[in-house]
Amino acid sequence: MAEMDTLLTTRQLQDLLQVDRITIYRMLNDGRLQGFKVGGQWRFSRQAIQRWLQEQQASLEVPESPEATEQLKPSAEALPISCIQAIQDIFAEALGVGCVTTAVDGKPITPISNSCTFCTLILGTKEGRQRCSGSWRAAAAARGETPLLATCHAGLCYVWGQIEVQGQFVAATHAGQFLDRLPDRERWSVRISELSAVTGVDEERFQRALASVPVLDEDRQQQIPRLLHRIAETFSEIGEERLNLLNRLQRIAEISSV
């Protein structure tokens, strides 16, 4: 005879997953959990939750061991990319800048949000991408708790903030692709000539694209670091929450297999 499915309340699911109510609602909103309402109250299928736990455990790809499995360590892989991307997209569009999240080594872990034409030309070449990664890597190597204004290899401004999970620096979010003053045509002609030689992109295309680079006033230049700091803190909290959840799921799976 098939086992009858039972329904869990939000409180029962909190106890099972060892998370708070806000986390349950967040997981519902982003589709990680499935539930339905009965009389205005959320209910969850126990069998569906058990299947979900098994799927989450399988995704960890942890090797079998006769001893207790070691907990997952903080890393950029703890970040839920779809969630990070959605927040990053909104931030970039609202402030009119480009934005990307990278690993500590400068390798992008999200697609770039709201990229300007000038940077898109650079990123469309292998050499350009390598140079951009070098700028992101150099920023990460400088460290620092407060986002600081820096200049990339192409001469554009950007600000970056570090993402920490359990106190470890695992990734960085960069907001940039803007200028802090109107471009000096003579100086930029020299820079564009150098970029063209490196990337193979025609100088005239770079000259036209330079007009697409936003020039931010002083107020906006001060606003971006403040908001980026909050974004980086939010990403840190999301990453830590997910890592804790994955480790709880791992423990639950170990207990269930005994």
What is shown here, in short?
The protein is α+β, with helices and mostly antiparallel strands and 258 residues long. 52% of the residues lie in helices and 16% in strands.
Tell me the number of structural domains: 2
Figure out the total of helices: 9
Arithmetic mean of pLDDT: 85
Largest sheet: 4 strands, antiparallel
Report the end-to-end length measured between terminal Cα atoms: 24 Å
Strand order of the largest sheet: 4-7-6-5
Helix content: 40-55%
Instruction: Sum up the overall morphology in one term.
Output: elongated
CATH topology of the largest domain: Beta-Lactamase
The radius of gyration is 23 Å
CATH-defined architecture of the largest domain:
2-Layer Sandwich
**Number of strand elements:** 7
The secondary-structure element order is EHHEEHHEHHEEEHHH
Strand content: 15-25%
Query: Helix/strand-derived class?
Result: alpha+beta
| CATH level 1 class label of the largest domain | Alpha Beta
Ranges where pLDDT stays below 50 over 5 or more residues in a row are 62-68
How are the SSEs ordered, and which strands pair?
Elements: E1 7-9, H1 10-17, H2 21-29, E2 36-38, E3 41-45, H3 46-60, H4 81-95, E4 98-103, H5 117-123, H6 126-142, E5 148-151, E6 157-165, E7 168-178, H7 185-199, H8 203-210, H9 218-257
Antiparallel strand pairs: 1-3, 2-3, 4-7, 5-6, 6-7
